[in-house]
Amino acid sequence: MVVEKIKAVFIEEPQFDAPVMVEGLPGVGNVGKLAAEHLLDQLEATKFADIYSSYFPPQVVVDDDGVIKLVNNELYYSKADGKHPDLIILVGDYQGLTPEGQYELSDHIMQLCRGWGVKTIYTLGGYGIGKMVEQPRVLGAATSKEVVEAMKAKGVVFSKGEPGSGIVGASGLLLGMSKIYGMDAVCLMGETSGYFVDPKGAEAVLRILADILGVTIDFTDLVSKAEQIDLITSKLKEIEAPVEPKREDLGYIG
Amino acid sequence: MVVEKIKAVFIEEPQFDAPVMVEGLPGVGNVGKLAAEHLLDQLEATKFADIYSSYFPPQVVVDDDGVIKLVNNELYYSKADGKHPDLIILVGDYQGLTPEGQYELSDHIMQLCRGWGVKTIYTLGGYGIGKMVEQPRVLGAATSKEVVEAMKAKGVVFSKGEPGSGIVGASGLLLGMSKIYGMDAVCLMGETSGYFVDPKGAEAVLRILADILGVTIDFTDLVSKAEQIDLITSKLKEIEAPVEPKREDLGYIG
Amino acid sequence: MVVEKIKAVFIEEPQFDAPVMVEGLPGVGNVGKLAAEHLLDQLEATKFADIYSSYFPPQVVVDDDGVIKLVNNELYYSKADGKHPDLIILVGDYQGLTPEGQYELSDHIMQLCRGWGVKTIYTLGGYGIGKMVEQPRVLGAATSKEVVEAMKAKGVVFSKGEPGSGIVGASGLLLGMSKIYGMDAVCLMGETSGYFVDPKGAEAVLRILADILGVTIDFTDLVSKAEQIDLITSKLKEIEAPVEPKREDLGYIG
Amino acid sequence: MVVEKIKAVFIEEPQFDAPVMVEGLPGVGNVGKLAAEHLLDQLEATKFADIYSSYFPPQVVVDDDGVIKLVNNELYYSKADGKHPDLIILVGDYQGLTPEGQYELSDHIMQLCRGWGVKTIYTLGGYGIGKMVEQPRVLGAATSKEVVEAMKAKGVVFSKGEPGSGIVGASGLLLGMSKIYGMDAVCLMGETSGYFVDPKGAEAVLRILADILGVTIDFTDLVSKAEQIDLITSKLKEIEAPVEPKREDLGYIG
Asked: Rounded CA gap, A70 and A94, in Å?
């Protein structure tokens, strides 16, 4: 069964009406993962598929009861409620370990998206800037000038030369493939130091995405997580002398 | 012949009645390998298959007579004797060199297991804790809460957050795939420093496994090996000042 | 679609009459890339295909408007004008990340070339010599003695033992495969320090190639880029003490 | 054409009568390569096939005339002359870059061998011992006790625990696969420091092999190369203080 390099195991096979896909996998500051997971919690979204792959680490994770799970990516949905459209949310423990694995995993998702009639994809990530940031901006990149303009109207920042090194990983590939497949796609990148898991960056990304999608979000949990991180980092500041961040650690990985 | 990436060469094709599979491949402290090899010695188990793979190192091993053998994994069996069920034991020189190789090798084993009607899989390994341990505990992880409870009754320790980083390698993958294939599986991890080949950890694991399986084991050889290792390490302690173990060296690799 | 490891997407499918292929992908001093890109600018060549591959980095690049593009190689053509023959030019962001990827990408190009009836291939690159060079020579390597003689007559230098370590990457593979496929091919390597993007090396290569192909080139832009680089490097010389180049950094990568 | 991962291009397709295969690819001290190349020079053997592979480096080599060749392995033959049997000799620039590549290349050779009715394979290599050696022994490893005994009678040394780490690469894999395919095979390993290309080790290996095969060899060229190396190394000794060799650099790679 798992002998294919990528295997989607469906718990149910929902029908969608012009759905929107949101991706939030691990990356810089785990901004995308935090945002997507908070979104699916708030929507009380339903898991409908597990994606296993030999491109992920050969590993199981163990829960608090001692019960294991093969590492995977997971697909959730939340049906349209009159305010927001049908939503499909992709989250997971890992991205593919190799470039080839990342291409094949993203292409697998794209083919599922095409089958469901997905029209727009939002990929979420962090944009590492190497220093603490009080009011993180949300930077964007998109598949066409029309989408760029629409995103600017929503407060997304498009800044020449940012991110200079492009967008690496699933957040980039889903964007690049969407363009080839003829779908609209946007990457939303929350500014983050890149040193910590960053709920503040996730909040910034999700505020804009919620507005775009027509979703109402309670940010209490994310804000509280952000305050905990702030507390830890301010204590660290007292203890340690500031260290100059290494430039190469801060590249954007979506 | 060997051009397939994985090739099982059968010496005989035994029939099994609801067999139990035990895996013990190289890993932390070689705990799993030592335990499985001692089990098959004690059972005078019969080798029935060699597994070759281009995922193993491109290497032959040379025996004391100068005769070579391509590196491999090996399958042994011991038929039910009224006390223990039909047993299949997987041992070997190496695990797959790449994540993809590890997935494909484990999936190959799983498909063989399904063909034989295997109901339960025990994977054996070490749990590196970075310091010498007098009375190693045996930690567990399993495919369901029911199996966790059954193992607790046998003295297996399920401790929240241990192993925190999950279970990597064959011991993890066979567990994860068992859950997907609908089989019961348990990983038994003997505590070990992680610095030496550890017969004491192997003994701890095998005492519990022997009780579960209904096998009678003479531990003399393992105990004697453990005493040799103790002797060496106590001499080393006299010579060397204690060194703080690096945390990252101690991750569990099953 | 992109699920194949290499996928050429054609914008149009031009017919060619005994065309000549010119390759200039990233490499030492980006000499080949600069030369090929300047050639296609001067010819106002037409893009007719994008080549995507899972052997490239899993990445999109973002333009100044915030619009993305999956990293790729690109094919341009310029039809015969009475002076030069039908020309096909291969440029791109990256070469394949792995040896296997490099072989498969080059073989893909070779098969396209065969379909188009390509008779001769020119691969362009830099030859790193580890020091600044005022008047870069253009070294060559070719598929036969006849082609070597023809190139000598055009001013290409064939120097015993240079490049000693062979020619690595697309510039080498296209040459090696041409020989097997029965096509003529030449690698033109402009001397370069190997420390900077080097428009001077590119100019030297392109002057010879333009003469061979019968193309008229305005070198103003390349000369001006070279002057900028000269300015930067002479300033660097004032600031920094000279550093002995590491020998291993200077291998030829085509 | 080259799109297969391994492609043998035949110049002619000779018929063989119970041929013997000799392999000498790059490895420790290049002992095996030097021995096999000297053998084919002395036999004035005929090249009959080129083996290309995407498992080799993506590279061409350039000869003194400036003419290139894609890196490859090559097959030569020398027909039986009443003294020696039909001989097939495998030499080359490189071994496969990855474990998987090494397995697939060796399996490709084994399948060719089976087609030709090869009964015995001799793989040649060096055995790195980390110090200069005056009278190199030739160590052996073989597919069966019978072959071990036959080789002992020819002066091959079989020494318990040597080589302790097994035999890695083509020399090992061809041996291991021969055993599975039911052919006899021997690895002959000439002792060598492992620090230099070692014609002395090659001579030792070839003297024994020539005796086994019934081939008359003039060793003048190898002896003269060995004297040059001796000269260089004795000069180096005068200049440099002796350096303790790193143990891990000396593993056997066949």
From this structure: 11
C97 with A102: Cβ contact below 8 A:
no
**Residues in chain B within 8 Å Cβ distance of D96:** 58
Structure tokens at C91: 């440029």
d(CA C140, CA C189): 6
pLDDT digit of tens for each residue in chain D (254 aa)? Answer: 445 899 999 999 999 999 999 999 999 999 999 999 999 999 999 999 999 999 999 999 999 999 999 999 999 999 999 999 999 999 999 999 999 999 999 999 999 999 999 999 999 999 999 888 889 999 999 999 999 999 999 999 999 988 888 999 999 999 999 999 999 999 999 999 988 899 999 999 999 999 999 999 999 999 998 888 888 878 877 776 544 444 444 344 44
Residue of C62, C71, C95 best to disrupt the A interface, most CBs of A under 10 A: C62
The pair of three-digit structure tokens given for residue D158, joined into one six-digit string: 């079989």
The closest of D84, D83, D100, D101 to D92, measured between CA atoms, is D101
* Contact predicate B92/B72, CB 8 Å: yes
Dmax (CA) for chain D in angstroms is: 55
Q: Which residues of B touch A71 (CB under 8 A)?
A: 166, 176
Encoding tokens for residue A222? 């994310």
Domain parsing of chain A, residue ranges: 6-250
A6-250: CATH number: 3.40.50.10900
Q: Is A123 at the interface with chain C, CB within 8 A? A: no
DSSP string, A152-174: HTTT-B--TTTTTT-EESHHHHH
**pTM of the shown model:** 0.90
- For residues A83 and A85, give the distance between their C-alpha atoms in angstroms, rounded to a whole number: 7
B96 touches chain D (CB under 8 A): no
**Inter-chain CB pairs, A–B, below 8 Å:** 89
Question: In chain B, what residues touch A61 (CB-CB under 8 Å)?
Answer: 166
CATH number of the domain located at residue range(s) B6-239 in this protein: 3.40.50.10900
Tell me whether residues A141 and C68 touch, CB distance under 8 A. yes
User: In Å, how far are A199, C78, D50 from D75, measured between CA atoms?
Assistant: 62, 43, 7
Neighbours of C178 (CB within 10 A): 28
Chain-chain contact of D71 with C187 (C-beta, under 8 angstroms): no
Could you confirm whether domain D6-241 is CATH 3.40.50.720? no
Strands D73-78 and A184-192: unpaired
- With touching defined as 3 or more inter-chain CB pairs under 8 Å, the answer for chains D and C is yes
